UniProtKB/TrEMBL annotation:
NCBIfam families: kynureninase. This is Kynureninase. Homodimer. It comes from the Bacteria. The gene is kynU. Its EC number is 3.7.1.3. Pathway: Cofactor biosynthesis; NAD(+) biosynthesis; quinolinate from L-kynurenine: step 2/3; Amino-acid degradation; L-kynurenine degradation; L-alanine and anthranilate from L-kynurenine: step 1/1.
Amino acid sequence: MVLTEKDAKQLDRDDSLSRFREEFYIKPNTIYLDGNSLGLLSKRAERTLLESLNDWKEHGIDGWTRGQHPWFFLSERLGEMMAPLVGAEVDEVIVTGSTTVNLHQLVATFYKPSGKKSKILADELTFPSDIYALQSQLRIHGFDPDTHLVRVKSRDGRLLEEADIIEAMTDEIALIILPTVLYRSGQILDMNRLTGEANKRAILIGFDGCHSVGAIPHSFSEWGVDFAYWCNYKHLNGGPGSVGGLYVNKKHFGSAPGLAGWFGSKKEKQFDMEHTLTPAESAGAFQIGTPHILSLAPLLGALEIFAETRIENIREKSLKITRFLMDLMDQELSDMGFSVGNPQEDLRRGGHVSLEHNEAARICKALKENGIIPDFRAPNIIRLAPVALYTSYSEVWTAVQVLKKIMVEKQYEKFKNEREVVA
Ligand SMILES: *Cc1c(COP(=O)(O)O)cnc(C)c1O
């Protein structure tokens, strides 16, 4: 069956999430397919940011406890709002820090090398910041990252096999850190299975959820995941530098935070100003210092939108619209040197399509010149993320037609095949 523009329009009419599109600032004549790097601003996120600024204007110091969004409880309140997105109880999630800082906190808390059980298991495809954090944590403990950071190998440079990861869970491993969804290929790891295997071996396991939270459902608590951390500026549309998310399984409440600070206090105790920390009996214990209020505030509005639908509905559309994109690529651009680098099965693919092409860097530049916003990951990947809340099927249709024109006319040849500073 040949797909046509009419099909795209019909899919838009049938889209039960289409009402959310008008909530977002979408620039005319651009098609934004980069919501997996930085989600777009919604009117509600803008509103809650402005309300928080106004709380400052109106209340000064009293904004901590008064005003529309009292700052003292904001991280906890946002944790509650986020809990359904990760399958957690409300006090198991806190919005604090950033991805990398939260990873440091969690490793400082949960990495307890003992005798031979002293290594950390990660993978060779993971995001560099996570690796830097793990290497430095190992050094702090006096270990050599070359021997103590074990990286599971990929068989094809794109995907990881769960069986290979499980095989690497030896009795030398104290802690496992893995992505929920791989940032390049978009592969979803089987978190349930991996957690089960780690639990069986008494190895703690934590996940980096940057590319999955807000895009796919999770059941962290049901699966028995020990901890997780993620950023809120990608699929959750919290804004550039938005404060991150942190999950700690209830069974670990009461663990002393590795990196302690006064915002980890039990709320009622914090202003007693004692020199002995009384940690919160929740994920809140893993906060460090004063939260970045103006980078938390947009999340109030951004998460309101998620509360009006179900993450399962978001996932359903995401699967459908990414499949539509892949089918169109197949139909329109099959002989242009592209290959799809993400897994094909729905269970194993996340919220973006990962196209590989030798000229990827300059094809991305040509796309941008034509008003299509992709992102490029060196050396040869074009990531395209049609976002369930605001991308339409018609936009995907147009994006593929534009890409076809770029390829047929070889428009990309006028650009250098090199990445930009930020790519
Ligand atoms: C985006 C991303 C990060 C970014 O970390 P920050 O501390 O927010 O800069 C880390 N890990 C993964 C997998 C990411 O996709």
